[in-house]
């Protein structure tokens, strides 16, 4: 049971999704009626200057509303009153999509939250000598820009296979208000 007395400023609600595939985006296009080919056809997306297909904006936004629906148990404990987001970054196949909402204020039965939706885009795995052991789609297609590197968005971490290079970028920042019933 979600109770207003249990919610504190600084609490974080979080969801992660790493199943973004071309098949999923095609299914979403069909279900949503948004059949813009930049979401389903690599050749057209490349001609549009995107280097490959991108997820629909409302596809990734759906994970924001899902975060609150799951937290509120689909209306059992409260309702989503408002969301306000900016879609700033593209979400691509293979990305890990992390959605977080941090409580900034509790007022009466309302909870105010800051939303941050971040994409983690794997680039490659290198051995200790810097040789590429595995390259991901982002590395193959050139999704990572000089601007990403200049802004410090490209990071590395050691994993069992070697050193993973990835981009960590906020794709969608925003805010939300939920209202709890109790």
List keywords for this structure.
5 helices; 23% helix; 182 residues; alpha+beta; Thiol Ester Dehydrase, Chain A; single chain; 7-stranded antiparallel beta sheet
Describe the structure.
This protein has 182 residues and is of the alpha+beta class. It has a single domain, classed as Hotdog Thioesterase (Thiol Ester Dehydrase, Chain A), CATH 3.10.129. It is 23% helix and 40% strand. It is built from five helices and seven strands. Strands 1, 2, 3, 4, 5, 6 and 7 form a seven-stranded antiparallel sheet that branches. Strand 3 and strand 4 form a beta hairpin. The protein is globular and about 55 Å long.
TL;DR of this structure?
The protein has 182 residues and is an alpha+beta fold. The chain contains five helices and seven strands.
* Overall spatial form: globular
The CATH homology group name: Hotdog Thioesterase
Number of domains: 1
Helix content: 10-25%
Let me know the largest β-sheet. 7 strands, antiparallel
CATH-defined topology: Thiol Ester Dehydrase, Chain A
Order of helices and strands: EHHHEEEEHHEE
Which structural class best describes the helix and strand composition? alpha+beta
**Architecture, according to CATH?**
Roll
State which percent range the strand residues make up. 35-45%
Number of strands: 7
Distance between the termini: 9 Å
**Assigned CATH class:** Alpha Beta
Indicate the radius of gyration in whole angstroms: 19 Å
**How many alpha or pi helices?**
5
The pLDDT mean sits at 96
Low-confidence stretches: none
